[in-house]
Design goal:
This protein has 19 helices and 2 strands. The chain is mainly alpha-helical. The longest helix is centred in the first third of the chain and has 37 residues, at about 50-85.
Length: about 450
């Protein structure tokens, strides 16, 4: 525990950020590879219809991640603040809640997908050519929902305990299993899109088994005991409200992906296949910076919980500089090799042509998107979840979806693919304005010595 306190509260900023962020970035990039794997190996079949089917069903996985992120990010915020305040009982309650809430929601998710599969796929834009491929993927991903949600959520709270390396290992286990199994099920056994879903489910079962072992054998304040599970004492409300911005971000990403696919399918299945590839490929730029922001979240929460606002600011400033540098470098790399990136997934000339144009449009916000993630994490860590929620709603719903329709009416296909980057820039600017106001009030509170409220208590 003493070593953890040193990492969180007194270690040199650059070293502490590196120690927390590097494993998180690796975990995020592992997640990118994990998400790319299905599309990549399905693309090796050379069938654009199967690639389009995976693209159409992508909102299902994103929606699962919405719940995982809500429980994981919320649980991480509550745990890190509790540990900063030396409240181990509350940390155990938070981890137990994340476990059981993930499993309950996962079972409900599986039931809904299986019972209402046909209307769901129709809503997603599946047509006569892609329906059977989409149905195979959806069925086999559905029964993996409890494992997919919990393994992703568990990685957040393991990291909140200060065990970033172990969180990374769990993510890598699932990813490596998926990458190994994908070609076996897709190509060797000839299962196509269904094989991709089977590989994904098995990988998440294996990751869940690792996290279960960690909780039972190595966790210092983590618990899966039923006696530690509670929805009282603000556990339910604090976790869900703190994780809500990230959850809404993911959920609305699912909705906007459905809308985007519906708009693109009017131009044929090739643009749908292309956007699925671009969406996965562009995750490298986005998740690289998201990994940095998520990795330092426990540092934000701990130092806010312990009243060290100066260190909080230093971590924030250093992390933003890292995000900008990595964002610029990653975007430049992708721009130079844009065609090669698309051809990694599929060689169909029509899909590649659409994909190159779409990738350029999506990369435009790459250099600055990390600022949004850091600002949102800062807001969540100091108990101001609502402004971060507003930003999520704007970026993936209220602003993006109307923009997609407006830009399509004005500029056709070119307008549709520019919608995300334009929305990103608006969200980044708003996040800077909102966080500066919140930060100014916090600093004023520190100067006057009035303290701040954490989990219903005043810390001076």
């Amino acid at each position: 525990m003493e070593e953890n306190n040193d990492l969180m509260g007194s270690m040199k900023i650059s070293k502490a950020v590196a120690k927390m962020a590097i494993p998180s970035v690796i975990s995020s990039l592992v997640t990118v590879v994990y998400n790319m794997a299905d599309t990549f190996f399905v693309g090796q079949t050379g069938d654009p219809l199967q690639v389009a089917a995976v693209s159409l069903t992508n909102p299902i996985f994103i929606l699962m991640m919405a719940f995982a992120n809500m429980f994981g990010m919320g649980g991480s915020a509550v745990m890190s603040m509790a540990m900063g305040a030396k409240n181990e009982k509350r940390a155990r309650n938070a981890s137990a809640f994340v476990t059981y809430a993930s499993l309950i929601v996962g079972v409900a998710f599986a039931a809904v997908l299986i019972i209402f599969m046909d209307p769901i796929l129709a809503l997603f834009g599946a047509n006569a050519e892609t329906y059977e491929f989409a149905r195979g993927y959806t069925f086999h991903i559905s029964y993996g929902a409890p494992f997919i949600i919990w393994s992703a959520a568990a990685s957040f709270i393991v990291r909140a305990e200060g065990s970033s390396k172990e969180a990374m290992i769990g993510s890598m286990i699932g990813t490596i299993a998926n990458i190994v199994l994908d070609p076996i099920f897709i190509s060797v056994l000839g299962q196509g899109t269904a094989g991709a879903a089977i590989a994904t489910t098995i990988g998440n079962v294996m990751a869940s088994a690792y996290y279960l072992w960690y909780f039972l054998k190595k966790g210092r304040v983590l618990s899966i005991r039923w006696t530690d599970f509670t929805v009282r004492q603000g556990i339910l409300t604090k976790i869900c409200s703190a994780g809500l911005p990230t959850a809404i971000f993911s959920a609305l990403m699912s909705v906007s992906t459905i809308v985007l696919n519906q708009l693109l399918v009017e131009y044929g299945n090739d643009p749908v296949a292309a956007i699925g590839i671009v969406f996965k490929a562009n995750m490298f730029i986005t998740f690289l910076q998201m990994g940095l922001a998520n990795g330092v979240q426990p540092l934000f929460g701990y130092n806010y919980g312990s009243g060290n606002v100066k260190r909080f600011r230093e971590v924030e400033s250093y992390t933003k500089k890292c995000c900008i540098v990595t964002g610029i470098l990653a975007t430049a790399l992708y721009f130079v090799f844009r065609e090669q990136v698309i051809r990694l997934f599929i060689s169909d000339s029509d899909v590649v042509a659409y994909g190159v144009k779409m990738l350029i449009a999506y990369m435009l916000s790459g250099p600055v998107i990390g600022i949004l993630f850091v600002n949102m994490n800062c807001m969540q860590s100091v108990g101001h979840a609502f402004p971060a929620t507003v930003l999520s709603v704007l970026r993936q719903g209220i602003l993006l979806i109307p923009l997609l329709y407006l830009l399509k009416a004005l500029f056709g296909l070119d307008g549709v693919i520019l919608g995300q980057s334009l929305t990103d820039y608006i969200a980044v600017i708003l996040s800077i304005f909102l966080w500066r106001r919140i930060r100014s009030r916090l600093e004023q509170t520190q100067k006057t010595g009035n303290g701040k409220e954490i989990s219903g208590e005043i810390v001076h």
